[in-house]
Prior knowledge:
The structure holds two protein chains of two kinds.
Chain A: E1 5-7, E2 10-13, E3 19-24, E4 31-38, E5 42-50, E6 53-56, E7 65-68, E8 75-79, E9 88-95, H1 100-103, E10 106-107, E11 111-115
Parallel strand pairs in A: 2-11
Antiparallel strand pairs in A: 1-3, 3-8, 4-5, 4-9, 5-6, 7-8, 9-10, 9-11
Chain B: E1 3-5, E2 10-14, E3 19-21, E4 24-26, E5 31-38, E6 44-50, E7 56-58, E8 64-68, E9 73-78, E10 87-95, E11 103-104, E12 108-113
Parallel strand pairs in B: 2-12
Antiparallel strand pairs in B: 1-4, 3-9, 5-6, 5-10, 7-8, 8-9, 10-11, 10-12
Amino acid sequence: xxxxxxxxxxxxxxxxxxxxxxxxxxxxxxxxxxxxxxxxxxxxxxxxxxxxxxxxxxxxxxxxxxxxxxxxxxxxxxxxxxxxxxxxxxxxxxxxxxxxxxxxxxxxxxxxxxxx
Amino acid sequence: xxxxxxxxxxxxxxxxxxxxxxxxxxxxxxxxxxxxxxxxxxxxxxxxxxxxxxxxxxxxxxxxxxxxxxxxxxxxxxxxxxxxxxxxxxxxxxxxxxxxxxxxxxxxxxxxxx
Lengths: 116, 114
């Protein structure tokens, strides 16, 4: 039973390009959470999605960032017109939903985005 | 809103010595508390959690944490560390009775000295 799968593991983009980060939750998990990790800042919550719905996007930057979790396929975090400040590790986590608060999340290994 | 404060960004400790990683939280409602561990270049793994009941919770690799409601703390301890414990440790909180996101502290990097 595969865990949370994130790809790519490493992504290099030039300033102004688009970055697409993918997350396939664990089997049976219908809730996905995206976090961004910057050095010395810990993990910052970005967005919480259920299938076809955005539940909480209070941590998403107002511009250039978007996320989706379609009925079929992985969740996608999309960053348009990337800037150097977007360089970070982006982690996805999944849960069965109502158990998240009891069991914590299962995290993927992350995508390390480098903007050059 | 909830918040988590990890007072130490880095903690050096000699192998086989005891260690305590400090965590304080603030919340206007009851919470669940977690410690996660992140080994180099990996994602986060749940180390232990406090949901209810006994205020002392333990992990399978010798760590323990105690929930102290009056001090709003959830410090992580281990009586004797091993070189393999080198990692970053994150304290986290989420609200009870809500299908809610988990909020993380900034992390404490544990350095084990030979």
